[in-house]
Specification:
It is an enzyme of class 2 (transferase). The protein is of the alpha+beta class. 40% of the residues lie in helices and 21% in strands. Helix 10 crosses helix 15 and helix 13 packs antiparallel against helix 15. The longest helix has 55 residues. The N terminus is likely disordered.
């Protein structure tokens, strides 16, 4: 209610008519051309978005109204509003209390309520105002609707004037329009505030000196900070150091030229890592408002795809290097074999037996080297079938000591630092020894055959993935470190050390397969291998093997058996390679066995049903006819559960089931092998 006001008897509807402007421009043009720099609002292009929106809505009003904004209560009005006051030509930029000084005691309390955020419509009783000399006084009702800035604070109010000289119906109509207009502004402000609160994109406002002013909930949720932690903080302190120069250039463009280009940069999370954002920004003259879309996952996915392409490229390089090295090594070995056989054939044709044994020895040595080469290649490619056994790690290492000492040579010292009670592991003993021999051989050459090698075993518990999410999962492992005090390795050599045929040794002194074989064996055993080294500081090769929870069985006493011949035991020999099968049959027959042979799975099962029983079945794993050697063995044991089986294979694309190998009377041999070892393994199975 406005005090000390006398109601005026309405006579007829009156609509306030604006005075004729001295210029032809519209009021909107006059506002844009007015020198606002002299007021507290500042230059018109730098007005905040909330003020611009309020002024645009004001122009749409069919009745007199003004936007009153800022600490000085500057007035921005429409055409109809300027007819209410005796000022010429406009009241633009005037202070509201000065403009309405004659009735300020009546208006002041309502203005203060609006600045506190409360809307008012004062109509009963109306207030009598004088529009100018000679103009008739008017009785008017006034509306005061608070206006909010970008942060939701009250920055001003909308002043609405309605003449009450009209009849009640017209009065109600004007009142409804005024209220509708106020509601439109309130709804727009509420929608903007809701967008700020509910947006999934990070939003922040920054002062021109790049200090944090405010941020929306999505910004705090994404980066983990609290409002107290980042209040007035320099934004550059949160930007990744590598991106700060780019951010400073972009902000300068926003402030000076109002650029709208997007930039991508990183902001620091409270935990220390960084999130990638794609930012858009706008400067309203007072604050810089930035909206950022979190693109961290997109960037990481792009990085993963790039890394995968790089790995594929490197893998192709390794395959090319592998093929070249394999061809070089095999050509050397085949040349030794072919040359020896050629000389042997010539001596036999000439009837001369001198040096025949030397030629045979050269050919045999080349064959053994070729066998070792293919074994290493298969181990590196993780296609070498393993025969893992549960074992006491320390005991097995001690049993391998004689082999390691021979590999090291007389002037190398071997030291042991073994865990007192290491956990049990399940690995292939032969491959473990082969890996240790390769590492000791490398250590001897790194030490120039005079130095120290230390084997260190320790139990390790991983609480996180090692070394990253693509490595070993958390769990218990047994670590074996092989360390020497040799000349060490450069970082570039460490990065390629596990590549096949990569070597830093002089030509002819190494095939480059030793470390690649170690890497393949450890990986195939479910573990992980890595190298730590520096020039002149020695080398340390580490291997992690998964812990086996089962108890280690007691070691049975070793019973020495003399080499013996077979005594007519019946053997079923199954292999699809005709020449190899013929050689194995002839040798086993000479050792006293009764041999029945088959070339595929169907023939093997037919022989087993009609020509059995057999004391031992020797079968290749890879067989033609749609059945593998594993399936043949299972079918035979369905008919005869106690059937003894010796698997032989040169390549296995699938691992043999552990349950199958663990059954009594079962063994596995990897091709190529000496025929004497085949006969010896057959006798061992028959004696069980």
């Amino acid at each position: 209610m406005v005090a000390n006001a006398t109601p005026h008897e309405p006579a007829s509807p009156v609509i306030l008519q604006p005075q004729v402007a001295p210029l032809a421009e519209t009021m909107a043009e006059q506002i844009s051309q007015f020198d606002w720099g002299r007021t507290s609002l500042g230059p018109w292009p730098r007005w905040p978005a909330s003020l611009r929106i309020a002024v645009d809505m004001m122009h749409l009003s069919p009745f007199p109204c003004a936007v009153v904004w800022g600490p000085d209560l500057c007035v921005v009005h429409n055409d109809a509003y300027r007819a209410l006051r005796p000022v010429s030509p406009y009241a633009l930029g005037m202070a509201f209390d000065t403009l309405w000084s004659d009735v300020w005691p009546h208006m002041g309390p309502w203005v203060f309520k609006a600045l506190e955020g409360r809307s008012s419509f004062v109509e009963d009783p109306p207030l009598r105002i004088t529009c100018g000399a000679g103009a008739e006084a008017l009785w008017c009702a006034f509306g005061y609707a608070p206006l909010h800035d970008e942060l939701g604070s009250v920055a001003g109010f909308l002043h609405t004037v309605i003449e009450t000289a009209a009849d009640r119906e017209a009065h109600r109509h004007w009142r409804e329009q005024a209220r509708s207009f106020e509601l439109q502004i309130e709804r727009h402000v509420a929608e903007r505030k809701q967008f700020w609160q509910l947006s999934r994109d990070a939003m922040m406002t920054v002062t021109p000196d790049l200090r944090m002013y405010a941020a929306n909930p999505a910004w705090y949720h994404t980066l983990g900070w609290t409002e107290e932690q980042v209040r007035d903080v320099l934004v550059l302190d949160l930007v990744h150091p590598a991106d700060r120069a780019e951010v400073q250039v972009a902000v300068s463009g926003f402030l000076q030229y109002r650029n709208t280009e997007q930039i991508e940069t990183r902001l620091r999370h409270r935990d220390g890592h960084y999130h990638w954002f794609r930012w858009s920004a706008r400067f309203d003259g007072n604050l810089l408002t930035a909206v950022g879309r979190d693109i961290t996952e997109c960037r990481e996915e792009a990085a993963r795809q790039s890394e995968a392409l790089m790995r594929n490229h490197q893998r192709l390089e390794v395959v090319g290097q592998l093929a070249g090295g394999m061809g070089h090594e095999m050509n050397n070995l085949l040349s030794g074999i072919g040359g020896s056989l050629e000389l042997l054939q010539r001596r036999l044709q000439e009837g001369r037996l001198d040096r025949v044994e030397a030629y045979v020895e050269v050919a045999r040595d080349s064959v053994l080297r070729a066998m070792e080469l293919t074994r290493r290649l298969l181990t590196f490619s993780r296609h070498q079938p393993l025969a893992p056994k549960l074992l006491d790690f320390n005991r097995q290492l001690r049993l391998s000591e004689p082999l390691l000492l021979r590999a090291l040579g007389a002037e190398m010292c071997l030291h042991w630092q073994l865990d007192v009670t290491p956990w049990a592991v399940c690995v292939d003993v032969g491959q473990l020894e082969n890996a240790l021999i390769n590492l000791c051989t490398n250590a001897r050459e790194a030490c120039l055959e005079r130095g120290n090698v230390t084997l260190h075993s320790v139990n390790m518990r991983l609480n996180a993935w090692f070394p990253d999410e693509h490595g070993l999962p958390p769990g218990d492992y047994v670590a074996l470190h092989v360390e020497d005090d040799g000349h060490g390795m450069a970082a570039a050599d460490i990065a390629r050390a596990f590549d096949p045929f990569f070597t830093t040794k002089p030509v002819g002194r190494g095939s480059g397969l030793g470390l690649s074989m170690v890497y393949g064996f450890v990986g195939q055993s479910g573990g992980y291998a890595w190298i730590e080294s520096a020039p002149n500081q020695g080398t340390r090769v580490s291997m992690l093997f998964p812990r086996c929870p089962e108890p280690v069985p007691e070691v049975p006493p070793v019973i020495q058996r003399a080499q013996r011949m077979g005594s007519g035991e019946r053997l079923l020999l199954v292999d699809d390679e005709l020449s190899l099968r013929a050689v194995m049959r002839e040798y086993l027959a000479e050792r006293g066995f009764d041999i029945t042979e088959a070339g595929d799975a169907n023939a093997a099962l037919e022989r087993f049903r009609h020509d059995g029983p057999f004391d031992l079945v020797i079968t290749d794993i890879g067989l033609p006819g749609g059945f593998s050697g594993r399936q043949v063995a299972k079918a035979m044991r369905m008919q005869l559960p106690q059937q003894k089986i010796l698997f032989i294979t040169g390549y296995a694309d699938q691992q043999i089931e552990a349950q199958l190998l663990e059954q009594p009377g079962t063994a596995l041999m990897n091709k190529p092998f000496p025929l004497a070892d085949l006969a010896g393994e057959a006798l061992r199975l028959l004696d069980e």
